[in-house]
Structure formats: C-alpha cells, structure tokens
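Human: Here is a favour to ask of a fellow structure person. Comparing notes only helps if you start from a blank page. I am asking you to supply a protein in sequence and structure-token form. Write it directly below this note and I will take it from there.

Assistant:
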Amino acid sequence: MDTPSLPAFPEDVPTHPLLVIDYQLISERDSNEIDRLWEAATKLGFCLKNHGVEEEADYMFDMGAETMKLPIMEKMRFEQGDNGVSFGYKAAGANAVDSTGRRDTVEFINIAKDDALAWPAHARRTYPSTVNERMDSTIVPFVKKSLKVTNTLLDVLSDRLGLPPGAFLDKHPINEFSGSEARVIRNPPPPPESADISLGIGSHTDFGSLSFLHNRLGGLQVLVPGAESWQYVK
C-alpha cells in the first residue's frame, strides 16, 4: 500500500463543521450517540469514525491510482456509456458542471456492488485489469464492510423513525440488482497558469440512500440551508 505525502488542508477557505459520529457506539446502540446521529442525519450530514473500513479504503485508493495510470484508450474500453447506468469508467470532461456548459475535470472508475458480490462472475459488466486484479484482495472486502456499516446506519435510522423492524433493510435486499457502487475519483490540479476556477463535479444530490465517502485531500463542499455560498468540509 502506498502512503503518499499529502498537502495540508488550506486555512484560507470557508469551512463548515460536521458532527463526528462514533460508529462503534452506534453499532452498540448507544442512545446518546443515536441522538447525535439523528440530529446530523436530519440536518446536513456527518463524519464517521471508528467504522473499521480505513485500511480497505486505503487499498481502494491504490486500486484507483493503478487504474487511472492506464492509457486512456484502454480505460475507454470500459466507459460507462449513456444507458443510464454509471458502472464503469468516466473520462474527465464527459459531463457539464453548470448551465454554461463548462466541463468537469474528474475521471473515475465505478464498480457495481453486484459485481463485487458476484465475483468471479460478472453480474453487470466487465472492468479494466487493474480492477480485476484487486477484486479478491481489495474491492470485495471493501464492499462487504461498507455494506455492514451502511446497513447498520439504515437500521438505526429506521428504528428512530418508528418504522417496523428492518423496514429500510427490506428495501435494500442483497440478492437484487441495485445502483449501489464503489467509486474512486481522480481530480488533477489545474495548471499553475490557469486563471479558471475548475469544478471537479457540479452541484448535485447523491442518488441512493447513503453515501459512504472517504476523502484524503478535501474538496467536498456543502450548501448549508439558508446560505448562498458553498463551504468546504474539513
């Protein structure tokens, strides 16, 4: 596993604090921590600690770096296409980020949860060699551990809403196809001489029930209710 040197988070950008939720306490059904989770989940979101997926996430970053180093023509053999399914590779500049038509700057590889759980069979599509070589050691463990974390959170939130036991989990059957995926994003720095303020990805709300984001460099922004400008999450 590579351990690259990462630059410090800048001190001159507007930031918005998020509540830090202890997953270990949530998994133990600690009532005080569940109260904090509910507050965060019904307002803006939260950071999660002690979830136990840190090592697997590091290996996923390694897989992403290996994949992005492939020649562009090789990566485009696995392009996600325009059929409404996002699994596969997306090249930088494929999407617009605003109403002016300005193009995005990110490339990413999306791996279907269904393919990770079906491996070595292909449930939804095929992937570059760098993905296949990491399926057993990296991607499958990452997906399985992530599902355990997100299913726990869904179950706790379902209980807090007063729904029947397992109501949310019943809507996420493991044996049915879904849009759930593991994604690794690469956003290169702009050229030093560039005066343009680049946007990696345009403003959006994630699809699906929960997003389990692992971030190393910052860049995530949130639009706080009632605010007119986006703020960074540190």
